[in-house]
Amino acid sequence: MFRFTYRPALKPYVIPALLSTLITALVAAAFVYERIDHNKNLRRATLESLAASTASWLDNNISRINHTLIDLQHHGQSCNADDLYYIRSQLFALPQIAEFGYISPTGRLRCTSWQEVSPPIQVSKAPNSFGLRMMWPFTVEFMEKPAAVLSRTIRDNGEVYALLRISWLKDQIRGRTSQLGYMAIIDSDTGVPLVLNGQYSLPVGEKALNFPIDYPTTTEHMFDNGRQQFIAVQPLLTMPQLSIAISEETVLLYKNIFSPPPLFFLAVPGLGLLTFMLLSWLQSFITHPAHWLRRAIRQNEFINYYQPMVSSDTQTLKGVEVLMRWQHPLEGLKLPQTFIPEAEHSNLIKQMTKEQLERAAIELAPFIKRQPGFLVHINVSTIHLLDTSSVDTFITMQEKIPALVLEVTEGTMLDHSSTDIKTSLLRLTQAGIRIAVDDFGTGYCGLNYLQSLPVSILKADKSFIASIGTDAVNIDVLDTIVILAKRLRLLTVAEGVETQEQAEKLRAMGIDMQQGWLHSPALPINTLRYNYL
Ligand code: G
Ligand code: G
Ligand code: MN
After folding, report:
1. Cα distance between residue 492 and residue 486, in whole Å
2. Residue 324 beta carbon below 6 angstroms from any ligand 1 atom
3. Strand partners, 133
4. What is the CB < 6 Å shell around ligand 2?
5. Cα–chain-centroid distance for residue 109?
6. Which of 120, 175, 400, 437 is most buried (CB neighbours < 10 A)?
7. Which atom of ligand 1 is the closest one to the Cα of 337?
8. Per residue in 374-415, pLDDT tens?
9. Rounded distance between C-alpha atoms, residue 412 and residue 416, angstroms
């Protein structure tokens, strides 16, 4: 017996295993990617905020110097002892300043925080502008150290200035530079580094910095040193012509960017297992034959075929056996043995037989109308006889099909002559439905049930008919079946009648009806109507 199963070419766990591995890998990759992206942003933000805090630190210093210069413009004009005392006390408070000084409206350096300059040294005149100015770089002659000049024009058009030590800036920047590529104070207009710690380099190509820089900027690109670097540039607020620039090579910036959380190593296999289980369940669901049967029922893919049964004597049509076919969308017309076992196994056979019978009632109506005793044989299994609602269905259908006959195999009769089956059979026969024993004679077992159960038709198995003219023993069995049937007043049907010789012999033996390819194969309803109406 064939079993109706879709047998996958691969072991059942291969596809779920591959798919769950793929899904898990994708999810893990997405997680890692997201984490890396997040951490990269975090590290870039760290560098950006370092640039911002450095700029704000420098702003604070410049602002303090500016305030001191504003304060000093009232104190240095005469450069007497009091003035010098005051100026020097201010100098003491600002270790980054090497010197304060005054230049007269005519451009003469008259007084510094060191001493009164006498005679005054002629320098350039102060420009007629407000606010803090910066001049850079400037070398303090007596120290031969670079400095930056921070200066303001004062009320009498003279100038007060402070010399900011570049070495102090360098130290400060060095203190703030860790493993960074470089940190620099650059000219916002040109990008020229004024104070630098590290190897200076700038991005090239379409992501190059746009000078002048007047707002905080970041970029990550190939730099002119041939390396991939990230740079954050932050202009100063007090002195916008200066910017803080911090840059780091991306290989260093993003080093050890992803360190998986401990839960990661638990979650990934967990997810894999979960998706594997889910997919295995899904696969077993969709490859389960019952799933396809249910779908076929929904799509009305089961149809009825009808094999005529004719009278042995007159060859006239007495009735039909209803046979189920599956009009499969891909596999074509499927025979019952390919799906009935699974339909029984999954109990779907109940619904399928009910619908089969309803179809038969509609399709055979013209035959029944013309010939009220028109036999309609349907095959039922043990499941139907053990199910009260199926029995109810048969009894109800009898209104439309008066000569309804249920074919039951010998196996059902023998293995399950339980009281439940007996009760069902009695209910059915009391309602006027007849019982036929299908494939009769193949069991060779006790025939007691013929007396105890309400059977009215015997269908001799086609193997007996096939043996006509070839096998003497089987012919004797067939003879015995006919005699037994006559004694028990049972109707007899011969199945599988293929030749004229068989038909003649069966008629002579006293078989009541015949069914087989000689008379007609099983036919769809349209052909049945065309041939017999
Ligand atoms: O028509 P075919 O030779 O393929 O039928 C083979 C067997 O399948 C039949 O002898 C019958 O026992 C079984 N069969 C056919 N149709 C039905 C059906 O509707 N219900 C059940 N239970 N068995 C059927
Ligand atoms: O339920 P049962 O086994 O009686 O169903 C009869 C089945 O036998 C039909 O489904 C059909 O496929 C098959 N059949 C019908 N007529 C013949 C026939 O003349 N010869 C053979 N070998 N099989 C037949
Ligand atoms: Mn049958």
Report:
1. 9
2. yes
3. 151
4. 307, 323, 379, 407, 438-439, 459, 462, 495-498, 516-517, 522
5. 79
6. 437
7. 8
8. 999 999 999 999 999 999 999 999 999 999 999 999 888 876
9. 6
